[in-house]
Design brief:
By secondary structure, the chain is an all-alpha fold. It is about 80% helix and about 0% strand. The radius of gyration is 21 Å and the shape is elongated. The mean pLDDT is about 85.
Length: about 260
């Protein structure tokens, strides 16, 4: 079965709805993100809209055009504020949600096989997570002006930030399950930039939808975990096929799957 990364954000939505147990553990963070989303929306339309519209009108921009442009700007600004908030709050709950999806997919053995060295993994996860958080926010700020360009600007914004988002979502799997370093994880992310961008661009587009993004930020994590689960199962299936063919020829082969710790 072909794996198409760009479809997994959508699969994450369906899977989350089909498995209410995932939602029960997210009541608190979802409530917090709803409050933040509403607050950002109110702040945007109650303060930023008038401020920006009056500034454009003072610069001799036609009033109708100024108000229309500023409504678009405010929606984008609220979306960006929401994304920044998610980058801070989501990692607290992200890893646990990711692991629960793998367990629901019957891959608890993968988590068990890679237990141990908890202190090392914790240090790698924390240091790598902070670096990725800083990088995500930096790229977000640098690419923010792209949203001034209608349609194409938003597409470029989602594409660039999509690769970074995917790198961050998959880092838990790389650092704490595959047991690889931040540098190795980044190199693989760049090597697979087409797949990462395909998933990430769709995920960022969903997270830029005001109010609804409080839900999509979690379904994107679920979608990423489903993607990883499919890759693991595909690798195991290929390994079994290789074992079968090699056993017929009497030739020993390496039985270590790719998700096993790398040393």
């Amino acid at each position: 079965m072909a794996i198409i990364p760009s479809t997994y954000p959508g699969q994450g939505i369906v899977y989350m709805i089909a498995h209410p147990s995932l939602l029960r553990n997210l009541i608190c963070p979802i409530f917090i993100t709803i409050i933040w989303g509403i607050a950002a929306l109110v702040f945007g339309f109650a303060y930023l809209l008038k401020l920006q519209a009056h500034a454009l009108i003072a610069a001799k921009c036609p009033a109708v055009v100024a108000w229309i442009v500023c409504v678009i700007f405010v929606l984008l600004e609220v979306a960006v504020l929401s994304i920044v908030f998610y980058l801070i709050i989501v990692p607290i709950y992200q890893d646990a949600l990711f692991d629960r999806v793998l367990k629901l997919r019957g891959l608890k053995r993968v988590l068990k096989q890679n237990e141990g060295n908890d202190l090392v993994k914790c240090m790698r996860g924390v240091s790598g997570g902070l670096w990725i958080l800083f990088f995500q926010i930096l790229v977000l700020i640098i690419t923010l002006p792209l949203n001034v360009i209608p349609v194409m600007g938003q597409m470029a914004f989602a594409t660039i930030n999509g690769w970074v988002l995917t790198f961050g979502l998959r880092f838990h799997y790389d650092a704490e399950i595959r047991n690889i370093s931040v540098l190795q994880s980044r190199r693989e992310a760049w090597k697979r930039k087409r797949d990462y961008t395909g998933f990430g661009a769709t995920a960022v587009a969903l997270e830029m939808i005001p109010i609804a993004n409080f839900f999509f930020v979690w379904t994107n994590i679920v979608g990423c975990a489903l993607w990883v689960a499919d890759e693991i199962e595909q690798e195991e299936a290929h390994l079994q096929q290789d074992q079968s063919s090699q056993s017929l020829m009497g030739t020993p082969i390496d039985t270590q799957p790719e998700y096993a710790p790398m040393v």
